[in-house]
From TrEMBL:
It comes from Streptomyces griseorubiginosus. It is found in: Membrane. The lineage of its organism: Bacteria, Bacillati, Actinomycetota, Actinomycetes, Kitasatosporales. It comes from the Bacteria. One of its GO terms (cellular component) is voltage-gated potassium channel complex. This is Ion transporter. Residues 214-241 form a coiled coil.
């Protein structure tokens, strides 16, 4: 049995705690946006919680880097993780911290062997809908010309944008809101491609399985036919022997 490396053991042991921290980040990000009456202390506590969660993911990246046997290869393979760790330090905008943390959560979720593709895609859809709605609401609610004023409007807009329907009844008017819209559109197209590819792969696998079963049945029938022919030959030989005797 192949022995696990220190990096693999670290990733295995930290999967659940990091996913739990991701839930904490979701709550901390959502509370100040949904609860418009939240005081300064609550908002500050949520901001601290966001930075703490991001810090844990940054430490996780550094630990995996230090435990890797090929650090240059690790950086090349996980360059998006590195960007997600560095960007919030360069420009500490809340939206960038959101994108960076979501990216780190998604990358770690893909490493979890117990998370199947369907679960990953479903979680990605729910996460993008929720955070896309919260993000666009936070930047559009106070815009003078904005028409996304409530959480319901934001969720509806996120859903129509991710599915590339775009009814046009709600649309962002700020620069950041439009950037969020572009991100949701691209994410929706990417997820649709993943779902389509998995459905196609499932059908191909089913057809191949049916073909294998059909070939096995054909081979079994052929073998039985050969056995019947052999038995007929033996019976004929016995008849000749009995007649000759």
């Amino acid at each position: 049995m192949k022995e696990q490396s220190a990096q693999d053991r670290w990733e295995q042991h930290t999967q659940r705690p990091l996913l739990a921290l991701a839930v904490l980040f979701a709550v901390a990000y959502a509370v100040p946006i949904v609860d418009t009456s939240a005081g300064h202390s609550l908002t500050a506590a949520c901001t601290v919680a966001e930075w703490v969660v991001w810090g844990f993911f940054a430490v996780d990246y550094l630990m995996r880097l230090s435990l890797s046997r090929d650090r240059r290869g690790f950086v090349r393979q996980h360059w998006m993780d590195l960007c997600a760790v560095v960007v919030p330090l360069i420009q500490p905008l809340r939206l960038l911290r959101l994108v960076s943390t979501l990216l780190l959560v998604g990358r770690r979720a893909r490493m979890a062997s117990q998370i199947r593709v369907t679960t990953y895609v479903g979680g990605a859809v729910v996460g993008l809908l929720m955070f896309g709605s919260l993000a666009v609401l936070s930047v559009e609610r106070d815009s003078p010309n904005g028409n996304i004023r409530t959480l319901g409007d934001a969720v509806w807009w996120s859903f129509t944008t991710m599915t590339t329907v775009g009814y046009g009844d709600h649309a962002p008017t700020t620069g950041l809101g439009r950037m969020i819209a572009v991100g949701l559109m691209l994410s929706g197209i990417a997820l649709l491609g993943v779902v389509t590819a998995n459905i196609a792969a499932w059908f191909i696998e089913r057809f191949e399985k049916d073909d294998v079963e059909e070939r096995e049945q054909t081979e079994a029938i052929r073998a039985l036919t050969e056995e019947v022919r052999a038995l007929r030959a033996e019976v004929a030989a016995l008849r000749k022997t009995s007649v000759g005797g």
